[in-house]
Structure formats: structure tokens, C-alpha cells
Protein 1
Amino acid sequence: TYLCAAADRIGGRAAVAASRASFC
Amino acid sequence: RERFRKVARAGCLVLLIAAGCAVLWGVLELRKHQRRDAADRTLNGEGVISPSWRVSGDCRPRTTAERSRDEAVADLLHHFDHQRVNPGLGYKEQYFAWRWRIAGSSGSCSPSPEHYRRLAGVLVPLGWPKLPTDRSDLELTRRLPPSPALARNLAELAFASHPLPFGPLEYDNRPFARIMLAEQGRFARPWGRRALTEIAPDTKLGTSAATLAAATVPQQAAPRIAAALTAMTQEADRRRKRIEGLKGGPHIVYQLRDGERLFELADALATAGPAAEPHAEPLGQTF
């Protein structure tokens, strides 16, 4: 969840990568 | 025959000395290894430090009984000497540092901000927090209003030249102090450049320096944190290839400690805010 939350906070491509990850 | 006996005796002696040296060397190596493990546990053994935004959440207003309890504990201020460490001061720190909202929406809100302002007015001019023996005083700084003096006091701990052990496992308190310093916002800027030079992917001191640098000099910090993330993913990739070469099939390539450093770096990158976006590629690769 740390990784997913960090990616969501950054937004953009990072958030897209997080949305594709099965564990997010 | 006499000569043969002498040579044999000397040979046995040499063998005995060599065996003794080998045992001694083994014992010394083992102790060195144990010391290194203990130092690593002190410096890097603690789990991921939760940033403020993860700790706080919804809360319910404090009841009359709770408010009256807050007043009673705050009154300890008048009965205990703040110049010295004493049980009254320690209890008050623990009370006001308590994570009131940890229980989520069913948890009580923190005591009134006025209590924290009064506490800051008394404690911060005394150079507090000083050499913490537990976490309460550092946890409490998270709730006090940020100020240049509090940032200066925190920086003394955050950049101490030796570990500041706390708790039964003697974890180092410096990384937590660095995170608390990062939460001082613009008052932490004087330590941004130093934090920038201490960013590292493999130690808790290095990842907490990354958070501090991201909070203070985000434009310079973001590419360096991204480079640290890349170093970690590349190392994991090398490890994966090595393991696959030996056994075949997919394997877990991040060890627990690496995983924790990875979370900390990801969080540090996010702390850089909009400056992180152009450098977020390594985080994407991590997924």
C-alpha cells in the first residue's frame, strides 16, 4: 500500500502504473 | 631417534599453535559478524516509519471527560521542572504524543491545539527534544506548531554523528528525527543541501535523508531519489537473473529490508510533490 499510495500522490504515469498493479 | 623425537615434538607444537590460531580467528570473525548484525539492526531494523498523512484520519470530537483530563495533564506543567528529565514530564509527553486518531473514525481527536501551543512555548526554548530515550518526544514534535527553533532542535538529533538508540531493540532514532524535521516545512530548508548529499537506497538514514531533501529542495531531490530507486530495481533485476539462471521460474527478488527501503524511497519521491512527476518512471518500473 505504501507504493500504491506514493504513486497516487505523484499522479500521472506513476498513478497509471499503480492502477494496473494487482496489489493496489 | 632423539632428533626425530625433537622434530616431531616441534611439529606437534606448530600444529597446536596453528589450531589455536584458527579457533581464535574463527571466534573473532564470529564476534565481528555479530557486532555487524547488531549495528545493522540498530540502524536499519525498524519497520517503515509512517508519515503524518498516514497516521491521521477522521476522528470524533473529544468528550467533556476527555477535555477535563487534558486540562489535568496540562496542569502538570506547573508542578514539574522542565529543565530536567523527570517522570512528570515524561508522562505528559506520552499523553500528548498519543496517536489519538489511530483508531480511525471511532478514535478521539487530539487534545486542543491550545495545549500544544503552550507545550511548544515551554519545551522548545529549552532545546527540546534532547537525546530521546523513547519515541514520545519525537512523536510529540509532530503535533507542535512548526518553528525555526523546533527545526533547529530536531536537526541536532537528525544529524547527530552517532546512533541515538531507543527502546529494547535499540533502534536508531535519527531517521525518525529526519522525518520529523521534514515535516517542519520551510523551517527545515537550511538542512536541505546536507540531506541531498546523504540520499542512499540501502540504509534507513539514506532514505530518511531523501524524505527531508524532497520536503526542502524538491527540484534537486527528485532526480536523485529516482536514481536511488533505479539502483534498487536494477540490483533486484540482477538478482532475479542470477536466481533464474540457477533454478528457473519466477522468484521473489526483493528481500524484506530492500522492500522497506523501497517503500521509504517511494514515499520520499511522493514528498517532492509536482517535482516528482517527471522522475516517476523508476516507480512505474517497480510495479
Note: The helical segments of chain A are 2-10, 12-20.
Protein 2
Amino acid sequence: GITEAQAHVIVNNALKLYSQDKTGMVDFALESGGGSILSTRCSETYETKTALLSLFGVPLWYFSQSPRVVIQPDIYPGNCWAFKGSQGYLVVRLSMKIYPTTFTMEHIPKTLSPTGNISSAPRDFAVYGLETEYQEEGQPLGRFTYDQDGDSLQMFHTLERPDRAFQIVELRVLSNWGHPEYTCLYRFRVHGEPIQ
Amino acid sequence: GITEAQAHVIVNNALKLYSQDKTGMVDFALESGGGSILSTRCSETYETKTALLSLFGVPLWYFSQSPRVVIQPDIYPGNCWAFKGSQGYLVVRLSMKIYPTTFTMEHIPKTLSPTGNISSAPRDFAVYGLETEYQEEGQPLGRFTYDQDGDSLQMFHTLERPDRAFQIVELRVLSNWGHPEYTCLYRFRVHGEPIQ
Amino acid sequence: PLSGVPCCSHARLARTPYLVLSYVNGLPPI
């Protein structure tokens, strides 16, 4: 058994971690912190032409989420970047040069999905460190699988600390959980050790 | 020792308070609730020309956070108003006339800072109640110190309830925690008792 | 393409109808 005071400490520590972007770790991909999207390589945004913005009754344009949302913290249902098919690329410039050691992938929980499933979630993905934005095959940092039956937020560690530091990483999504038309990325984070 | 039911109550109460803007207290400075930034007096926004926005490959303008973010709730890294140097001013019009009794100052936790420190955080600051926007020396409501080793969110109480109510307050930042070029304000809140 | 080799113009983002943000001068104030 624990005392009331111990319970308060446990709860407060849990909330403190939760308030620290849920991980307590710097996200070097976060856009407001200095990260940016450089390219989506061969992927194409999945344009659904469903969200129409109008002014004074005049239709203006169809809105779809840009890849920037993948490095922004809002992960409410729909605030994801959808690319056609199940293979996509995202080249991200980090806020600084680091030795990447951990990646976080987030998707909405099934409980919040209007369809009841998360078939549009990424499944197998790989991350590469690039020297330049245009480098075609970077240094593999790891290959991982986002588990649709796991937590909404999942963290993946590199097998070993890379021998080189990178400021550009490429996220390559290789498969999704079954959606035939698109894959949705809610948030991808990159954690690691800054160079001295 | 406590029972499981008691543990649930502790957790639920903590979550409830957390969901109430973490404090359970009205923030009369909050922009969406009616607060607004009147002036920054002598301070200058630290314009770094780092974030460039483009459309169809055409550079449009450089983006930097305005002082309004200080009365907005998003406190992700980078979503702060930066002023040059370590002395800055912010004149805030509250949503209503109140007897200010408590101020909240927030900064990002060190764990989320890409630099590993929060040298850009405010250190000593003072708050004044103003009768009008242009009043140069208002009624001192208190002088406080934000502790860089303390919690991310810190609350400061006036020594005594002011004898006058104010709808305009001035936040005067007097020093920071060491950053040579700028000071970043994430969120400043004003709590108190509305006049009858 | 399954090989993973980029096959298209690297300037794809420049042709998209949304604002692109790039950091050109170091870290923003944090």
C-alpha cells in the first residue's frame, strides 16, 4: 500500500512528464523549435477536394493539410498529412545537427477514429540520415514498425548511436495498415544528442 | 495506506485541475477571453529573419512571433515573444477590471529546450497597475523572480490585495537568465478578483 | 518506386499550394 502523499507524488510526476510534450525529450523536428520540411520526394499529397473554404458564399479553394503538420503538435483527428498510397517520403531538416537516437511516431487512437480503425496509419517505416537534402540514399538509422494495436504514441530507438551527426533526416514509410488510398502521418519526432 | 478508490479520486482531481488551464483560475490576460496587448513600450521584437514563408517557391516574408503569443496558451518551444536584450515591457489590457492578486509566468522546461538551457527565460520582473495605457509609472503590484530551476509554471502572489482595481497592467522584465541577445516570454497570466 | 530512389523533381514543395516555412538563419528564438 502507498500513502496519500506518495500517491500525490506519483500523479504529479506523471502530469509533469505529460506536460513536457509527453516525452520529456527535445523534439529536434518540431517546426516551432526550428525544424522544417524540406521535401516529400516522390510522395504526393492526397488531394480529396472535400474541405471547401468559402467567403461571402463564394467558394475559394479546397483545403488539405500540408506536410508541415507532421512536425506540428496538434494531433486531433484529421490534422495529419495524407499521401497517396502506402509508400511515402518526408525529408525533415532538424533544428540542429544531432546524433539521432530515438524517433517517435504518433497516430490518433482507434477510440477517436470515426471509422473505428486506423488503417491509414503507417506500418513499416525506415529513417535515414542525410548529408544534404538531395542525397538519394542516406545512412540507415533504423527500420521500425508502428503497431496499430499499441499506444497512440510509440518510440523507437536506434540500435546504436550513429557515428555521424545529421541535421537532415528522411522518413520513408514503406507500408500502412490497410487503407487502399492513402496513409496519414500525424506527428513524427526526432530525438538525439546535439553535437558539442 | 490509501485504497484504490482514493487513488482514483486523487488522479481524477489532478487531471481535472490540469484540464482547467493547469491552475483552475481565471486568466484575465488571456487573449481569447478578452485580454489584449496594448503596447510593448521601449522593447523591440527581436527580429532574426530566420523563418521564411514562401508560396510556389516565391519568398513572401519573414515570420516572427508577435507579443500576442504571451497571452495565448500555446507554449511549445519557439512560441514565445522575443524582445532584444534582457529588459522588456508589455502593457496588457485585461478582459475586465480586477484587483490583481496573482501572476503566473511560464517558460518551456529545460528538458524541451534544444539548447539544453533556458537562458532566454525572464528572471526578475515587476508588475504595475495602470490607470491608462500611457501612464508611465503605475502602481507597483510586486516584484518577483522566475526561478530557472523551478517548475515550468510559477505563480506569484501580491503581498497584499491592491486598494485599487485595474484593467491595464504592465509587465516589466528586468533581467533574464543569461541569454546575451534576447529574452523570450512564453505566457504571462493575471489572476484576481473582479470588481463588484 | 519500390527501390526508394527519388524519381521526381526535388522542387516538388515549391509547386504546392500551401505556405512553405524554411529556417534560413539559425534557430528561431526559443
Note: The longest strand of chain A covers residues 88-106.
Protein 3
Amino acid sequence: VPAAPPAPLGCDDPESQAAADIAVNYINGHSHHGYKFTLNRIEDIRVVPQGPNKDIIFLELDLLETTCPILSPTPLENCTVRSFAEHAVEGDCDVKMQKVDGTLSVLASKCNSHADSSEDLLKVCPDCPLLAKMNDTDVLQTVSAALNDYNSKTTESYLRLLEIGRAKIQYHPGHTIVTEFAVGATNCSAEEAKANVEACQLLPKDQSNFGFCTAVMVKHPSQDLRVDCQLYGHQVGAPDIPLLSAHWYYTS
Amino acid sequence: SVKKRAVAEAAQHDKVPRPVGFVPPPPACPGRILHFDI
């Protein structure tokens, strides 16, 4: 009598969890923009046997954005999940994997991310600032002013903008813009950049040094700008990041 | 002659009575939420 087919995998089974962990690491490892994502829920899992010791596995995953930029060397388990009140971002991913002789690997993945709906957030937290559009004039001005301010004061390498990660604008009680953006060190010192900024290019891949800045610009009741940048130092295996010209920004 | 019992009747008798307090297993999917639902 042929052996009974194995019971279908449940979404909370250890094997499903192991497959999801591999899929999430693959997704973060193949993304160059925005932030790292972490598993929030396994929506579905389907196993299609392909013969002895070979299965194809289809996973549907719900992910949540963390506060770690994608280029940060921080291990995912140390990354804080973006809270609901910070206007969370969800990722929906479909992943195709295979298990051959017990070894799991990813064949393909497709993800879409979207911020939580403003209505849902304001329903729970009426005063929480919402994510702003990346091409908002306030946002672009804040990023530009913050990076210029940082470069005018640093004694280190001149930094170039890679992408804006996120931005929020608060209109009450004052008019405040908070932005987060990724930067890369260039082959110029800040002093050299004053003479010929066009010559300042991102460091080549084998010397690349990426980092991340947060800036807070208060426009009302009084003008104030604070910017903080952290460079990660050179990371072996850092991805090739296209330099964005001044008018072209990626968004998370 | 052997009287063929109606299937429904047989099924009725054969149905295993659920023990009191029987809790059906949780659905296999979707899995539990690890952080929060949005």
C-alpha cells in the first residue's frame, strides 16, 4: 500500500519557519534600497513534491520594515521593527524555494511594500505624523540643507546622497520635517570638494563606505536644523550602489 | 439475504461521537502574527 502522503505543512511548523528565515535573508540580501524587513507572518505555504528528496515550496510572507537601513551591517535580529506609530511599512512577498536532500534554497522572490494606510494610523494615533512623499519640496530642501551642513563641518570624506529612506512632516505645534537618508563616502575630503565637487565620486566597490543620516529641520516657530550621520566603515561584499544625481531619488 | 443498510444510516451509526470538549486543531495557515497586524 503506497505510503500515505505527508501531512501538509502548517504555517507555524518549525520547517516552515526555517524556510521563511532563509527567504527573508535572501530578500534582504538582494535588496539595495530602503530598509531591512523582518518576518511578521507566514500567510501560506505549499509543498509540491518533485520526486525522491526534492520538493518545490511556495511561500507567502508578510514582512514588516525595520529601522535598519538595507546597507547597515547590523544583524537583522538586532533591528527594531518600525512601530505602528512611526507609520509602519509592510512587505508582501511570494517566494519559490526548493528543498533538495533536506537543503533549502530560494529560486525566486517577488515583493511589494506599502505604508500602512494613513486612516488606520490616524484612527489609533491622531497626532502621529504621516510619511511624506519623497518628492515633497520640504523633504528635498531638508535633505539638501542637512547634507550641505554636514559636509561643511566634517573633517572626513565628502558625503554624497544615495537615497532618501523616509520622511515625515509635522505641522502642529510647529512645522517640522524629519528625514532619513543613505549616504556614501567619496574620494574627496570636504575641503577638496569646495574646490571641485563634480570630481567627487563614490569610492570604488572595494573601498566603499556607506552610511546613514537623520535630519530634523524646524521651520516654525524658529528655524533650526540638526543632522547626524553615521558611516558604517568599509564592508566586504558591499553591493554596487548607483549614485543618484541630484534630481533622482529612490524611495523605500 | 443480506439487507444492505442505507449508507446514510450506516454513516450515522459509524460516525465517531466527538468527545466532550473536543477542540478542532488550529488552521494550518495563516501562521501566528509575530509583531502586529497592519
Note: Chain B is about 20% helix and 0% strand.
Protein 4
Amino acid sequence: MNIFRLVGDLCHLASILLLLLKLRASKNASGISLKTQELFLAVFVCRYLDLFTTFYSVYNSVMKVLYIALTALIIHMMRAQSPIRGTYDASQDTFLHVKYAVAPCAALAALTMLVQGFDVRDLFWNFSIYLEAIAIVPQLIVLQRYREVENLTGHYIFFLGAYRALYILNWIYRSFHERGYKHHYVVYFAGIVQTALYVDFFYYYAISKYRGGKFSLPS
Amino acid sequence: SSSDAPHDEL
């Protein structure tokens, strides 16, 4: 464990809690993409299959369970809880049909198995790495469509992006400080793609903080 | 696991 990974994980947890807070406080799901949340749940469930096979640490297991459980709770609130359910606007959340996200990632994961040798857990794990890279896209598109971004929604995406950026620093740190650390280029590639998706958001977020005004995206 | 994937990461 290093400081970048720890702070990254905590940013990730903070982002999920901020989204839950937004849903609870405003009783409103406008500006939130259900598709992104469902893709994230698929990412966590596929990646954390090792919860059943390998124990790393209490920290590791608790965080994995929290990510899965809290994301499932967000989805439940958006799908089933009144009045939040009525405020979710599916017509704005249309960018990516889930199957067009899942199918290419599954194909890529299968291809990766040809290179690495087949292992069921690795297949799901690689799939989750590819899927996570694009899971935020529907959310970013919803933001673009609404333009005016609520404070908590803005913070949610900021912390999520910070988590990804800190993981890049974590890999650099690990490669220098861990004897025999194996480079995992699939993870680096997906992680860099994913972080790059946030760059535009970070730019406008920073400008709005600097000016102290409302956060809105350009048309 | 065959790939040495960093499963300890989240």
C-alpha cells in the first residue's frame, strides 16, 4: 500500500458517498446516468470475484464489499425508490447502449486470454478493466446534455476522476519501489484512457471553482 | 492466476 493508492481508494469511496448524499438530499436523480452506475456495478462484481478465492487484507475486502453494496444501493434508489425514480430521465441517458459497451470489452478480454493463457477469473478481471475505462462515458454525456451541474454531482465526478489519476501515480510508485513488480500494460492502457476522459471535465470544474460561480459546461 | 494481475488493487 502507498499513499497514492490509499488516497485514491478513499476518493473513490468519497465519490460514491457524495452521489448517495446527492440522491438522499435532493431526492432527485437528474443529471445522473443510471447506465454508468450499472456498468460500474458490473465492473465491481466481475473484478472482485476474488473475494471468494483470495484474502488480501481486511481493508481490501471491506472496500470491495462497500463498492459493490453502495453502487447497488445507488441503482436501487434510482430504479425503485420514490420520488427519486420519477426524476430519472432515461431519455437523456441514451448515449451508449449497454450491449455496445459490454460486447467489445468481452471480446477484448477474450483476446487478452489468447495472449495470457485462459483463466476464468482473469477473463472476468480483464473484462472489468476494459469496461471500467468507458463506464463513465454515459455520465459525462448526461452532464453535457444538462449543462448546469449540481454541486454534489460535480464533486462526485471530480472525486472519481481524482481516484483514477491517483492510480496512475500509484503504478509509477509501485514500479519504482516494489522489487519484482510486474508491469501490467492492459491496466496502464485502460487506466490512462479512463483518466483522459476526465480531462475536459477537470478543466471546466477548475474554472468554475476559480470563478466561484455556478458550474456549467459550454454548449 | 496466470497473468500476475495486481488483484490487491481495487
Note: Chain A touches chain B through 25 residues (CB under 8 Å).
